[in-house]
Amino acid sequence: MKLLLLLQQESAMPEIPRQLKPDELHQWQLAIAEADRHNILCHCRDCDYEWVASKPEPCQCGSKQVEHIACWQFPDG
Length: 77
Ligand SMILES: [Zn+2]
Known about the structure:
Keywords: Hydrolase. This is HAD-superfamily hydrolase. One of its GO terms (molecular function) is hydrolase activity. The chain is α+β, with helices and mostly antiparallel strands. The chain has 2 helices and 3 strands, in the order H-H-E-E-E. The chain has a domain at 1-7 and 38-77. It has helices spanning 2-9, 22-38, and strands spanning 40-44, 50-53, 66-70. A hairpin with a 5-residue loop joins strand 1 (40-44) and strand 2. The radius of gyration is 14 Å and the shape is elongated. It binds zinc ion.
């Protein structure tokens, strides 16, 4: 849960590396958008279940009190 709370605090867009050229920046943005579309961490506020989905969806317990967090926000390791 500590990691999850940390991520929620950093839910804004990541800082854009300044050294990127315009075409590289475009690729970077596409990559993030792609990851964002297909890797959403879902966390149920009711039963605390966590899973990854390609789109926001209700929990297996039937609850719709679900948080959706894009996985690209996760640091490696
Ligand atoms: Zn649930």
